[in-house]
C-alpha cells in the first residue's frame, strides 16, 4: 500500500469507478458523497451510482458505439459494467439494469473495500494543490462547490436541461392491449408495447403540446437549452406532427403475432399501428416499467392525465413521475488534458458527466481513466492517455484540449457528447457498408486496447485486492 491518499468527490458512476480503480491499485481513497444529508432535484436515495434517468446503458452489441464502449470497460475490470452485467434485466439488444440492486451493490462493494474510506459530507471547496483529487460530482454539483469550481477555472459553467422518464407499476397495465416484443425481434421480447391508431396519436400529441408545464426555478429561466439526446417528449411533439413517430414512438420493427402474418405485406401495412409507446423493465420481474423516451417537464397531474390516454395505460399507476433538472458541465476543452488533469493543476482531475460526456458508460469511462491516472500520480509515475482508436480515447480527446476546434475558438459552443463512431479516426481502408465498417472499428479498438493494457500493466504493476 502507498502512503499517499487520493480524494474522490462524488460517488456517482464516475466517482465510484475511480475509487474502485485507485483502491485496487493499492492506494487509500477518501470517497466523499453529500447524499443523503444533502440531496438533489433528481436523486431519491443516498446509494452510490444511483441512475436518475433511464436504467439503460445503451446497445449491448460491440458493433455499436455504446456496446463497444461497454466492452472496452470490461477489458479494464470496470466495476460499473461488472455490476451492470450482474444485475441486468431483459431489454432486447440493450444493457439495462435493476437500478435498485445495481446501486445497492455498488454501495456495499465500495463500503467493504479496506482501502476506501466513505465520508458522507458536502465538499465545500477544492482540495489543496498537494492532494491528488478527482472531481466527479456530476451534472448536479452542489451550489457551494460549483461556485468554487467557477472561481478556480475562471469560466462560467455550461448547462443544459435534462429530463427523466416516468416509471409505472407493471401490474396496472392493460395486457389485452399492450403486447410483448423487441424491435426486429432482437434478443428476448423484453419491451411492452402500447399501439396507437392515428386518431388517438393526434389527440395525444395535441394534449402533450397544450399540457401545463412545471415551473422552472428562477435561476433556470435564463435558458431552455435542452440536450438533444434527452429532449422532453412534449418538445419532440412540438417539432412536427410526425416527429414522435420517427423517434420514441416509432412502430417499425414491432409486431404483435395476433395481428396476423408479418410477412403478408398487405396485411402488415393494414395492421401496423400509427405509433407505439414502449415500456422497458426496471427490474427482473417487470414490477416496474419505464416509459421509453418519455422524459418530460409536464406537471405531475398533467402527466397522469395525458399519459393515461395511451392505449393500455388507462389505469396506470405511477411510481415516479417525470422530472426535469438543470445539468452543469465544464467547458472541458479549455480546461482539461486528455489525461483528465486540469491544465493549471496537474494534481486535480475531473471525470464523468461534469466533463461533458453523455451516458452512463461514458461516465464510467471517465472514472476509469481518472482513477488510473490518479493512481499513477500517487506512485510518482506519468499519467496515460487511451488510444484514439478506442471509444474511451476518442471521447477523452473530444472533451480535452486535443479538441482544437473547441479549445481555441470562442465562437464554438461546447455541448455534451455520447459515445460515437464519428469520433474515431478513419480506417486505413475505407469500408462503405455501415455494418462492416462498425465491425472494423470494433476489431481495431479491442486490438489496440489489448496492446495498450499490456504496456500499462507492465509499468503500472497493479495490486488487485480480493475483497
Spans where pLDDT lies below 50 across 5 or more residues: 218-224, 462-467
Question: Which architecture name of the largest domain does CATH use?
Answer: 3-Layer(bba) Sandwich
How many DSSP E strands? 17
Task: Provide the domain count.
Answer: 2
Order of helices and strands: EHEEHHEEHEEHEEEEHHHEEHEEEEHHHH
Taking strands numbered 1, 2, ... along the chain, how are they ordered across the largest sheet?
A: 6-2-1-7-17-16
Assembly form of the protein? single chain
Using the coordinates above, name the CATH class of the largest domain: Alpha Beta
Q: How can the largest sheet be summarized?
A: 6 strands, mixed
| CATH homology-level superfamily of the largest domain | FAD/NAD(P)-binding domain
Number of helices: 13
The average pLDDT value, as a whole number, equals 87
Helix content: 25-40%
CATH topology of the largest domain: FAD/NAD(P)-binding domain
Task: Give a topology summary.
Elements: E1 2-9, H1 13-23, E2 27-32, E3 56-59, H2 65-75, H3 79-86, E4 88-89, E5 94-97, H4 99-112, E6 116-119, E7 133-135, H5 143-153, E8 158-164, E9 167-169, E10 179-181, E11 191-196, H6 198-210, H7 233-238, H8 265-271, E12 275-281, E13 288-291, H9 300-307, E14 318-320, E15 323-329, E16 341-342, E17 345-350, H10 360-378, H11 391-398, H12 404-408, H13 434-460
Parallel strand pairs: 1-2, 1-7, 2-6, 7-17
Antiparallel strand pairs: 3-5, 4-5, 8-15, 9-13, 9-14, 10-11, 11-12, 12-13, 16-17
Helix pairs in contact: 1-10, 2-10, 2-13
